[in-house]
Design goal:
The protein is an alpha+beta fold. It has eight helices and 17 strands. Helix 4 crosses helix 5 (102-112).
């Protein structure tokens, strides 16, 4: 049967409805491309070079990138750090710390400050000590730093070991570049390691002891005449006595070699022998003694003393050495 009018009206109606539906979906439904669009990505931080270039293009100063500080490792190299507070005497303070060879370590420590304090009389309860030290297989004590906080002085004395330009041996220096030990004016040895004993440091000690390498030249500070040599060899070892032009008798003990003999005339600066370890001696050193009219004189008062100052060009290297030792104290 044909639809009225001979045309398929129902089929035309269904086709028209389908076309209308497709038009609506095309206009209003999101496209497939929108469904597949990638999500927004976080922007990468600019590099230092990119940041600097961008700042320069905008006329701004380039940003300064500060690196994170990194602490350098501290090499203790077998050294120990000790801190203590004085209750009785210095030797007892070191003993109470429970360290090996406490008395010897205490003696090395106190030697640094004998120029500014008498640690037998000037020590007070509550004084504080700090030191870096090590002891080798032979029992020798190496102490590159020694601090003493003195109530009597109202300040801390801080001694750092450093080898100054032109010196053959290191010495000890305060932070401002002042040498800790005094030196004799026109003394008998130009290059020595340390003065290890002063007049009356111990009973019967009548001079100054200069620790030096064996074979170090000994020079006469003044003109004079050799009075005698090698008397009481068991105690004095190789020794020389010179009567100087001012009437003072200068005695040189424990030498490895004598270069003069009794009756010789001596000029200023003439070599009279070499440092040794002969007689009653435990290590290479020179015992230097001066007397007049049978009275023992203090070499410091007889010669006069001086304290050296590091030259400005050496201060940078010295401060670096101080910083290294300070870091060892902190690490210890």
């Amino acid at each position: 049967m044909q639809p009225p009018g001979g045309k398929p009206w129902l089929l035309f109606g269904l086709l028209g409805a389908s076309l209308a539906t497709n038009l609506v979906m095309a206009l209003w439904w999101p496209s497939g491309e929108q469904d597949c669009a990638p999500a927004p990505q976080a922007q990468a931080m600019p590099t230092e070079a990119e940041a600097a270039a961008a700042a320069a293009a905008m006329g701004d100063p380039a940003p300064v990138m500060q690196p994170e500080p990194v602490a350098a490792p501290v090499d203790m190299a077998g050294y120990k750090v000790i801190h203590g507070v004085v209750e009785a005497n210095l030797a007892r303070t070191f003993q109470d710390l429970g360290i090996d060879s406490a008395d010897a370590v205490s003696a090395v420590f106190s030697r640094q400050f004998a120029w500014d304090l008498d640690l037998r009389r000037d020590l007070q309860k509550g004084d504080a000590i700090t030191a870096i030290y090590t002891i080798d297989e032979q029992g020798d004590i190496d102490m590159p730093l020694a601090w003493f906080d003195s109530k009597k002085l109202g300040k801390a004395l801080q001694a750092y070991r450093y080898q100054a330009p032109g010196d053959e041996n290191p010495s000890y220096w305060y932070p401002d570049g002042t040498e800790v030990p005094y030196r004799l004016v026109d003394g008998p040895i130009a290059q020595y390691i340390q003065i290890t004993s002063l007049l009356d440091d111990r009973r019967g000690h009548e001079g100054w002891d200069f620790k030096a390498l064996e074979g170090t030249p000994i020079l006469s500070p003044k003109a004079g005449r050799v009075e005698k040599s090698n008397w009481n060899h068991a105690a004095n070892g190789n020794c020389v006595e010179v009567v100087q032009s001012d009437g003072v008798h200068a005695l040189y003990l424990h030498m490895s070699r004598n270069d003069v003999k009794p009756g010789d005339s001596i000029s200023v600066g003439q070599q009279i022998g070499l440092v040794g370890n002969t007689g009653r001696s435990t290590s290479a050193h020179l015992h230097y003694q001066v007397e007049k009219a049978g009275k023992v004189l203090d070499p410091g008062e007889y010669h006069g003393t001086t304290r050296r100052q590091l030259p400005p060009e050496a201060m940078g290297a010295f401060q670096q050495e101080m910083a290294k030792l300070d870091a060892m104290v902190e690490a210890g």
